[in-house]
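Design job #97: recover the sequence.
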């Protein structure tokens, strides 16, 4: 066994693998000062910030708020909800998305803003969704065949991404389930 491992290491370091190909993925992020945001997005950020007050996060003290702008101009909000059995909690992004889908199942989401604070202070850097939330957001984008602008708030700067695919390259989707 040891000989095989040493031989593999030798081959790895001394043999060029001609079949290797490098893939690149470009992510475009627009960076704004909060006061520079377009009015529609500034309003969404304020709603997300306000939602952090509705968060139930006694264990992490990490309060997250999300606000969705739908195609029918409704704004749906959500906040993270923790549970002492940690996996049973749910993030603000999924609370908002599932609530929007249950209220307006045929209406696409145009944009989502996310904000977070801890210990009474909003984060200086923009907050990003976790992997599970990225997957749920992508499902919604694919469901309606429409990009969702993602607005990530931070005190010092706010990021805007054109779509969820920018957050989740090489994503898993419906096409992966087909033969």
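Job complete. Output follows.
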């Amino acid at each position: 066994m040891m000989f095989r491992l040493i031989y593999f290491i030798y081959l790895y370091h001394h043999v060029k693998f001609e079949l290797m190909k490098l893939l690149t993925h470009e992510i475009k992020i627009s960076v704004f000062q909060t006061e520079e945001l377009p009015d529609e997005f500034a309003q969404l950020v304020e709603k997300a910030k306000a939602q952090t007050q509705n968060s139930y996060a006694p264990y992490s003290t990490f309060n997250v708020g999300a606000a969705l702008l739908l195609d029918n101009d409704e704004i749906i909000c959500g906040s993270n909800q923790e549970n002492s059995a940690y996996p049973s909690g749910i993030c603000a992004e999924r609370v908002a998305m599932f609530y929007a889908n249950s209220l307006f199942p045929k209406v696409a989401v145009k944009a989502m803003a996310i904000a977070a604070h801890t210990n009474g202070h909003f984060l200086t850097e923009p907050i990003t969704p976790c992997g599970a939330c990225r997957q749920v957001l992508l499902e919604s984008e694919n469901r309606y065949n429409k990009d969702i602008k993602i607005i990530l708030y931070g005190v010092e700067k706010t990021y805007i991404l054109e779509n969820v695919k920018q957050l989740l390259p090489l994503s898993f989707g419906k096409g992966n389930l087909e033969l």
